[in-house]
Amino acid sequence: MNALRQLPRFAAPLRSAAAFSTTPARPLSKMQLIGRLADSPELTPTSTGRDVIRYALGVSSGPRGEDGNRATSWFRIASFVEGAQRELLLSLPKGTQMYVEAEAKMDTYQAQDGSNRTQLNLLQRSFEALARPQNRSEDSTTGAESETNAVEEPLSGVGAS
After folding, report:
1. Do 78 and 123 contact (CB within 8 A), yes or no?
2. 31, pLDDT greater than 80
3. What is the pLDDT, as a whole number, of residue 118?
């Protein structure tokens, strides 16, 4: 009991008007995703002449269904990274497991049929390539795919852990 009384106190005393920051609060809309690339990222020019990388990420969640699969949500992501990060992102194959941090924004637009639609737009701020896709080879006798390498190989290099 004596040892507990001698421990230093790390908690600051409570104050009625504690200021944590002198900068005004800004709105924050951020998403963190871990999922697999739906296809290789594509580089497309914008109307301003700047290049944008677009890709989709599939994120599985929830319990497995009767078919053995989990529910998958698909997210479309845009990125304006440059340099080594850009080259790495463009070189990633379909199925690569990624961690992505992105700004999220809901936009409403009018579709061709005249109806109003809402879309979630994600602008990538950072990413990490976590694992290469699992290698699958086609069995020549049954035509079915079989896993030849069930263990995922971690990636290394820029943007990877």
Report:
1. yes
2. yes
3. 93
